[in-house]
Amino acid sequence: MINQNIVNLLNEKINQEYFRSNLFLDISGWAQDLSLKGVQGYFLAQSQKALANVYAEIEYLNQCGYETTLGQINEGIREFDNIEDLFVYVSEMEKGYKADLNNLLDVCLSSKDFATYANLEPQVSTQHADEFFLTSMLNKIAIVGAKGQGLYLIDKELSEKYPLPTEEAA
Prior knowledge:
The chain has seven helices and no strands. The protein starts with a helix and ends with a helix.
């Protein structure tokens, strides 16, 4: 049996992940409008990863005998002045997400809910990798710039790591 406080926090996390998935999907549309296929591919991949977390956490709650409460998804920011502003925005959002995840894990440990902790623990290393990647991208943008050739290089690097699904199949 899961502590009701943890159930509530898991429901909040599910809604937060759902927001992130939709935000990343929306950002991928922004990138597509600008013909930034690498940026588009990266945010599509991030959207799918967040949605996979939604499914996993819903399944976990259901297995434990609890229902999920999905709320209204707030609208995120879709327009950015440049790629640097985009990555700064996402990096700051991820820091908040990490703080919420750490809080949830702390509550699990203090409640001795080791099963829920173990279920969420793999997300810690994934979150660390995501934050490291975003910091790396911001460092690269600082070196090459957010416009012209710099933007081209950043998009090209992302294209190599995150090809669009239709391009992977080709």
